[in-house]
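Recap from last week: sequence in, structure out.
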Amino acid sequence: MSNLNKIPVTVITGFLGAGKTTLIRHLMQNPQGKRLAVVVNEFGTAGVDGEILKSCADENCPAENIMELANGCICCTVADDFIPTIEQLMDLPEKPDHIVIETSGLALPKPLLKAFDWPAIRSRITVDGVVALADAEAVAKGQFATDLDAVQAQREADEGIDHETPLSELFKDQISCADIILLSKADLAGEEGVEQARATIEAEAPRKLPILSMSEGVIDPRVILGLEAAAEDDLDARPSHHEHHHHHDDDDDHDHHHDHDHSHDEFDTIVVEMGEVSDPEALQNAIVNLARTRNILRVKGYVAVEGKPMRMLVQAVGERLRAQYDQPWGAQERKTALVVIAEHDNIDEVAIRAALGA
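Predicted structure tokens:
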């Protein structure tokens, strides 16, 4: 089955206090016309995050679409908890258009991505993208969370965790697995703090990633939903410290807490239309170069390639680009149309159109 028929799932990671629940509340309130479902991987029995989110339920994300997994790390309870929960969501009378998973604060994201390869669900869902939240104020100070004592208490409460794993390794694994990084509490960190946090994360990341700041959990949902990263097929590009000994002893803990976190650079979108393209590889290179030179966050759309009956679907997140021929043009007008999303200050329509050869 092609990814077009699978339900997309966005995985949201980050330490205790990074603001994951606040971000999900914002997505629930701004669903972009999608019917959402949310899975919260709580640790322990106190389902605080789940309760917070259920209090925000509405017709776009009704209470029955909000599920909690309350006994520790998802990746260690795949068969018992995770798969049945996903199946339950997909068997609802009205299937969700998009599923958001909030991992617990000390979870390793990569084993969770591997769970999406389970035969029971592999053909029905795809990992749309992994979003890692980092507390800008804490990272700027060389920490990973504002309240390290709370994180440590969380670890000690979970008997399944390998307490020897340094927090720095968990942080690096969350960064390495991500498609996009959100620096939360940008308002508290200030401009200098955000730049310091950005530099720290760039030094840790195995590849260039889009890094955006936000406050109070507010970010344009178009920037983080619909990434179409198919992360389950892309595991080799997401290195982990725990590659060879992942088990439920090195994994997880829980983030039960909601915090104010948010970032507010406004985003702009332009649509670049042009005719048929003779050199699709040159166009792809131009898109990657735009991300590098102009901090373009997202480019997505269809390309009409000369001599090809199929449309080429292009999806870029930062410098990571995927292109595939998806279906014939049929009766549709053969033209190239690309949506370009960037922070307000980085949208120079004339320069972008010239760079893409429009």
